[in-house]
Every structure is written in structure tokens, then in C-alpha cells.
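Researcher: I'd like a structural prediction for the single chain below. Treat it as a standalone chain; there are no partners to consider.
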Amino acid sequence: KPMPRATVKAIFFGTITRWDSGRPIVVFVLPPDHPTTKNFAWNILRVTPYSFEEKISSIVATRDGNPPRVVETETEMLRAIVNTPNSIGYLSSFVVINNAHSNIRVIPVL
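Model: Treating it as a single chain, here is the predicted structure.
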């Protein structure tokens, strides 16, 4: 089932910090200069890569909630999500989620 773009944006921008189950969302991001991050910002979040970087930096600086964790490669991203329950991250044009029961889902964003 696709995830609405507004929900994805709210999760990555720190507005939604918990899943419907009440569990905290663990957010993984790639470095700001990574091509996948730029693609994710433009095509999924519909913001400039700079705006995305600024928002992530702001969340980390203020330590609001659970700040995003940076991984260096898409391989590390997938490994981190697989090994972290309640996590979310991105690969190219997809969002990857690991729920509390280690059910990994790769979903398109609408």
C-alpha cells in the first residue's frame, strides 16, 4: 500500500515522530550530497535538497524527538533499516519501513 507524500514528508521533517502503534519512528537519511538524497528531496518530498538538509540539521541541532541517523551508502541504509525495528529510510524512489515485527516493506510514495 503506497504512503501519502504528506505523511512521508511529515515523518522526515519531524512532525510525525511515532507510528500509529505509538512506537517512536527511527529515521535514517543519507548524507546531504548523496545523489539519492537529492532525488528523494526533489521527487518525493518536493522540496529543494538544501531545504531538506536545513530541516534535518535543525532537527539534529535542537535534538527534537529522535533525530535522524545518517548512514553513508544505500547498502548501509538498507542494512540499518533491516536491523532496526520501527525505522524508515529511503532508496531511490522508494521508502523502506521496518515495523516492530521486523516486517520489511518497500513502498512507493504517492
